[in-house]
Amino acid sequence: xxxxxxxxxxxxxxxxxxxxxxxxxxxxxxxxxxxxxxxxxxxxxxxxxxxxxxxxxxxxxxxxxxxxxxxxxxxxxxxxxxxxxxxxxxxxxxxxxxxxxxxxxxxxxxxxxxxxxxxxxxxxxxxxxxxxxxxxxxxxxxxxxxxxxxxxxxxxxxxxxxxxx
Length: 165
What we know:
By secondary structure, the protein is of the alpha+beta class. The chain has a single domain (1-156), classed as Electron Transport, Fmn-binding Protein, Chain A (Pnp Oxidase, Chain A, Roll), CATH 2.30.110. Helix content is 31%, strand content 30%. It has helices at residues 3-26, 89-94, 118-131, 134-140; strands at residues 34-35, 46-54, 61-67, 69-71, 74-78, 99-104, 107-114, 148-157. Strands 1, 2, 3, 4, 5, 6, 7 and 8 form an eight-stranded antiparallel beta sheet that branches. The longest helix is centred in the N-terminal third of the chain and has 24 residues, at 3-26. The protein is globular and about 40 Å long. The mean pLDDT is 92. One of its GO terms (cellular component) is plasma membrane. This is Nitroreductase. InterPro entries: F420H2_quin_Rdtase (IPR004378), Split_barrel_FMN-bd (IPR012349). Pfam families: F420H2_quin_red.
């Protein structure tokens, strides 16, 4: 998919994403964790986490809502960027650090991250495509291999707030 096409799709959902993030943060995670995204090809009960990371150039903190799965106790997120030809900024930024923060519903953690390889990657990708079928079309629309990131929680942290970005 051309970056311009992917950008148009993302722009149309930008207001929804901003509202989703605000709801998640304002409620401390009581709302926004499970969302019906069946209108865009997802599932009625799709789980979302928040990741908090530091910009590799700016040093600023950012919070991003993402669909997630759970494989063997690890939190799985996908750097799809709607099938764009370049990686999402959050993915490029976490590559510059060893840990990031993740919040699931009302619980937040510091976590390490890794990218699965080989057969493990294949199985995790299949699982994530089951959770959110549009990932299949996203991968077909780009020549880049969409990264999968697995987060391993280390220790609890305070839940995210608007001021924590």
